[in-house]
Amino acid sequence: RSVGYRFGPHLSDCIPLLIGYCKNASEVDEELREYSLQ
Questions:
Q1: How far lies 7's CA from each of 17, 18, 23, 35, in Å?
Q2: What is 1-38 written as a DSSP string?
Q3: Rounded distance between C-alpha atoms, residue 9 and residue 13, angstroms
Q4: What's the CA gap between 23 and 33, in Å, rounded?
Q5: From CA 8, how far away is CA 23, in angstroms rounded?
Q6: From what superkingdom does this record's organism come (predicted)?
Q7: How much is the pLDDT for 1?
Q8: What is the pLDDT of residues 1-38, one digit of tens each?
Q9: pTM of the full structure
Q10: 33, 34, 36, 38: CA torsion to nearest 10
Q11: How far apart are CA 3 and CA 25, in angstroms?
């Protein structure tokens, strides 16, 4: 919740990984996909 200032510098590394996961996730992983985007 309050770690944005610490996490911000790492966004450029994390976002492509997250997008790749969401594109490759099956329908079974729908719930996990939703949680990872929150």
A1: 15, 14, 23, 17
A2: ---HHHHGGGHHHHHHHHHHHHHH--GGGHHHHHHHT-
A3: 9
A4: 9
A5: 23
A6: Eukaryota
A7: 58
A8: 567 778 888 889 988 988 887 777 776 677 777 776 67
A9: 0.51
A10: 160
A11: 27
CA distance 14 to 3: 15
What's the length of the chain?
A: 38
Residue 33 neighbours by CB under 8 Å, 6+ apart? 21, 22, 25
Does residue 22 contact residue 14 with C-beta atoms inside 8 Å?
A: no
Residue holding tokens 């990984």?
Answer: 17
Q: State the amino acid at position 4 in one-letter form.
A: G
